[in-house]
Amino acid sequence: MSIYSSWPLIGETEDGDRDGTVLLYRGSHRFPSPTDPTSIVELATIPAWCVPGCDDESGDTVAAYLRLSVSLSDAVLTEASATELRDQLSEWIARPKEVPRA
Asked: Which of 4, 53, 73, 88 qualifies as a FRET site for 21, CA 20 to 30 Å off?
């Protein structure tokens, strides 16, 4: 069982379809195009109750680590997906953090 709690995927609709806001990076020699293949970005946090020595079960506190996953290697973000990433990162930054205790 994973200790990570995934957030909504950036670049994918609630129905699981790619929304075109995250594009597959196709090389530094190519300008991004809306016709490029799509990708997704995912954030995942570790709930405080999975942090060794932590007894906070409120659900607000998270571990001081954040997993960032990008499917299919590098991605190119549109303004919409960059805004969503910013919003999710800002929410994670604002949450209380927990680190393992000895």
From this structure: 4
